[in-house]
């Protein structure tokens, strides 16, 4: 199991929700208590999913296989291959004709 770094904003949201729930209990506001507990629970669930690596991004199996094969052939991490592929795609969308480089070269590593 691989643990990922938790976003600080998520932890702050849980903390604020817990403080809000505590204040709602002291103030006798049951509806606010339920709201803050629900927000804290959703944020905690998001923190657990992030920590376990389930960040919600699902790739098609053929794309995952392509990333794995290409990364293995090039001796790189799949994340680096994916970054270059996305960069090549974006370069193709916004390619400036005055730029002499071919946006397809980005995938091959020549666009850097």
Topology:
Elements: H1 8-27, H2 30-51, H3 61-74, H4 78-93
One letter per element, helices H and strands E, the order comes to HHHH
Ends distance: 34 Å
Count of alpha/pi helices: 4
How much of the sequence lies in strands comes to under 5%
Task: Give the proportion of residues in helices.
Answer: 55-70%
Describe the structure.
The structure is a single chain. The protein is mainly α and 112 residues long. Helices cover 64% and strands 0% of the residues. It has four helices and no strands. α1 (8-27) runs antiparallel to α2. The longest helix has 22 residues, at 30-51.
Pick out its properties.
112 residues; single chain; mainly alpha
Question: What's a quick, concise take on this entry?
Answer:
The chain is an all-alpha fold.
